[in-house]
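[job 0412] stage=fold_complex status=start
inputs:
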Amino acid sequence: MPARIGVVVFPGSNCDRDTTHAVELAGGEPVELWHEQASLEGVAGVILPGGFAYGDYLRAGVIARFSPVMRAVAAFAADGGLVLGICNGFQVLAEAGLVPGALLRNRGLRFLGRDVRIAVEQPDTPFTHLAGPRRPLRMPIAHGEGCYFADDATLDALEASGGVLFRYVRADGSVAGETDDPANPNGSLRAIAGVRNAAGNVAGLMPHPERASEALLGSDDGFGLVRSFVESAAVGATAERTPEVATR
Amino acid sequence: MTTEYRFAVNVLPKPGILDPQGRAVEGSLPHLGIEGVAGVRVGRRVELTVAAVDEAAARAIVERLAGELLSNPLIEVSGVELLGATSSTSALSPTVGAPR
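[job 0412] stage=fold_complex status=done
writing structure:
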């Protein structure tokens, strides 16, 4: 039986259909969860998709944080459930304190919609174990507030505990700089593109793997991340996973 | 009896946090022929009215809002400022606790 994967729909979400489509491609059964519902309907994992929840008024993600469905998501996460936030979903998770750090206005102030390259820093997690051997991964971003920020102590703790899942890299795979490096599109500290919480079951990233899940879309580099999530949810895995080494 | 208290919450990026908006504003100053202005920080001001039994109770509500919703303490600092108080039958006045 396919894993039932909840995809939360806030007013202003705009990647929910892309996400349900990618989940289906990966063999999961997507379940749309409306922001006003307090039940997650027994899903095995939850994805917060990209978009502009509640218009991103006040700060990106903050109003969504207080919605009924997010209370359920927080309880699900506290219980060890797998949660992935993509783009705006990452911003919601950060505002809710479910992953460390915050997303600031892009260093160059502009909204950016283009492809970036990211490196998988931790290949043995429920979010990345099927990422495949291709490196770096190319997928789109589409955000105005994606500059990852945390204080130095938090960043050091993240690095030490394997909390940094993805970094922006150049075409040759080297880690992008923090300033004046087009490979780090928003000026994220330490070129961080995605993190997970200390328990390892909640993760967020700014790039869009679901929009890079079919060759038809220009890249299928993100599909391995969607597959990782769906497969991990299916087997109830929230701890370390063995990376798939097969070539594609 | 409750009184209505008018507050402002001022939110600014924490010192040391990159503020690209402030930097952009600062960068425009030479175009105006202005020199000697530095340290521009761009934030947000939210005004609101709270009905409460006294100023302390009203301030407690606003401070909770300021910390949980109106600012993100990881990246921003907020300050709460009382603008005035009024009973429901009189106009907003800067005096607090005037008898009805």
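[job 0412] summary: The mean pLDDT of chain B is 89.
[job 0412] exit 0
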